[in-house]
Amino acid sequence: MTRTAIDVASTYFDRVRARDIALVDLFHEDAELIGLGERKTGRDAIREFYSGVIEGAGPTPTQVGSLLADGERVAAEIIIELASGGTVHAVDVFRVEDGLIRSLTYFIASE
After folding, report:
1. What is the pTM of this model?
2. Where does 5-110 sit in CATH, by number?
3. By the 8 A CB rule, do 51 and 33 touch?
């Protein structure tokens, strides 16, 4: 059974909160992660990115309101608490195909 785009985005946030690198398994093999002027392409590059983020920043995202879905696209406004005590405000936009993330674009502002 194929998961809905909302299910995939919810599972992604659950895994980030759990600091579970298996979150990368939610991405297509050739997926893209786009943000802060950079583009990571492919699951290996995305895994390397998240390994550093999870280890270095220890992010804990909290949704602001509900996930917003339109077909294969999901948008989430989140506040991310960092292990350092800081926070960032972010918007994540997912494009999901066949139950996996095809692309994730994120926009970040300091709190």
Report:
1. 0.92
2. 3.10.450.50
3. no
